[in-house]
């Protein structure tokens, strides 16, 4: 089997300042990579760079990104955008960033799903999409689904919007999903439901997932591989057990100790 994602020696700069340096990683279909690291270590920049979502003033200055064997940096913007929302998706740390404020949740779910399935299924049945959305909401503990469908994002809490985005990802079943702190706005029981659904997405649809989190517990629970970022570099990268049980770097040991200490408290 070929890797679905292969990143080689990636460097990303904001102006002249490198935020990601010499990052290489590889992901097979259905594999989950957990990326941890302190605030400002470059985690969001890395996944935004891979997705092609860097803002003005930042750019990839070195390296290569292959998705399903295609070199993403060689693709035209239009081709690259086509991959996003169909085969590659992202759940943002701030869900407001990916929801349109002036459209109801129902409308944007329909649009997201029909955009993604244009190639696959032709015309979509609205009633069916609605049913699937309600089903996805229920699985991740989003109660009052009918009401949520009628709402605009600003009428919902941050955690609710985050789960709407997760439901869209579950319905789309992308081949590669990037999740930037996908459960940070959720309380612990709901977090657990969401993580279970991500695991199902991986095992039922073969979705490969890159999950960025401050929570090593999440990595322990759902990841196959783990990476630790420090000052823009992957200072640790390997199987989850290798990284968590036998950290090589002092920094990872400190990070793990701090988490274990908090958990004990
Ligand atoms: N738009 C920007 N312009 C300039 N520098 C930026 C910008 N966004 C991020 N940076 C810098 O790039 C580095 C990496 O930031 P990044 O947001 O990727 O870190 P992170 O690990 O995702 O942090 P957090 O966990 O707080 O989200 C930091 O030094 C940050 O100050």
UniProtKB/TrEMBL annotation:
Q: Where are the transmembrane segments?
A: none
Q: Where does the UniProt entry say this protein principally localizes? A: membrane
- Do you know which PROSITE patterns this protein is assigned to? ABC_TRANSPORTER_2
Keyword terms, alphabetized:
ATP-binding, Cell membrane, Membrane, Nucleotide-binding, Transport
Q: Name one Pfam family in it.
A: ABC_tran
Family as reported in the entry's similarity comment: Belongs to the ABC transporter superfamily.
Which parts of the sequence belong to the ABC transporter domain?
5-256
What name is this protein filed under?
ABC transporter ATP-binding protein
Gene Ontology cellular component list: plasma membrane
Q: Which organism is it from?
A: Blautia liquoris
| Cited SMART domains | AAA (SM00382)
Q: Which domain of life is it from?
A: Bacteria
Give the record's membrane topology: Peripheral membrane protein
Question: Any idea where this protein resides?
Answer: Cell membrane
The record's GO molecular-function terms, alphabetically, read: ATP binding; ATP hydrolysis activity
